[in-house]
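Notes from the 1:1 (GR / supervisor)

We went over the backlog. Supervisor wanted to see one worked example end to end before approving the batch request, so GR pasted a single chain during the call. The sequence is below; no edits were made to it. Supervisor asked that the structure be written out right there so they could see what the output format looks like.
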Amino acid sequence: MRNTAQLLQWFQTQKRALPWRQRSDMYARWLSEIILQQTRVNQGVAYYSNFVETYPTVEHLAAETEENVLKMWQGLGYYSRARNLHKTAKIIAFEHNGSFPQSYKELLKLPGIGKYTAGALASIVAGEPVPAIDGNALRVYSRYYGIKQDISEATSFKTFFDIGLEAIPVNKAGDFNEAIMELGSTICLPKNPLCHQCPLQSNCYAYAYNQQHSLPVKSSKIKVREESIDYLVFHKKGHVLFHHRKNKGIWQNLYDFPTSSMLPISVVQESTPLQEITHLLTHKKLQIAFYPMQEEFVESIPHNCRWIEKDQIGLLPVPKPIADFLEKHIL
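Structure output shown during the call:
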């Protein structure tokens, strides 16, 4: 890359003062990278701070219960990240004596660490000259080099990885990767990029040919499925009936309410919902209704359900729609 020196100089003077940049250890940077997957930086900062304060070392995190880790994660979504975070903490603490692998290839073997995260950690912490290809890097490289390959295609990652491998300076690998990602986050934006502030402008293909809005090429669109959930809200002498979701899925091991599929559908048909909401996920549009239920309909408690005292409900890890409902109607 012709503008490497300008990019690194720009990064040193313009980079954001993010809390994980104050530390150089693998544990802190790993926490930040997992939290920032599918999460905006301004939202992730508070979660990162809570995690490092509550679990100052990987051993502290490994010793925690998964349920409490999920509770700490509540509100971030994509809960598989939290489950994998806990799994990896246990592996590092109990199988690697608290020491993280330092290489790209070894980091890839850990739960929840993919090619981008492994590249970021290996380069930023250990200095390995390996690219970190996230959405920001895809956009920067695509525009700078004029790459018109569809980034949604599976084969595209290797194309951009190879380009990053050639561009990355051996002795400044971490700073270079962070600079590329910082540029994509703050200057080379998906819409209305701030080209007049960009340190790569002089050799940027997209800027030269006015193709900022046509690059990167991305053709695929996420297919969103609609799904309806009828939640049944049972009260009993200061207790509420909760369902512990044991099956695999987006909310695995979180708590919600039993659903109409656990009781005769006529029970719901005869009731008026307390609240109806639409909750959007990446691949799903959930239409959720909450029905108030009488205790007599629970002759036998459904599988994986139990009564929780109201003053203990706040300790449960719950999906956001449940948290919002509890705050409005129960807590």
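Supervisor's comment: The chain has a mean pLDDT of 94.
Batch request approved.
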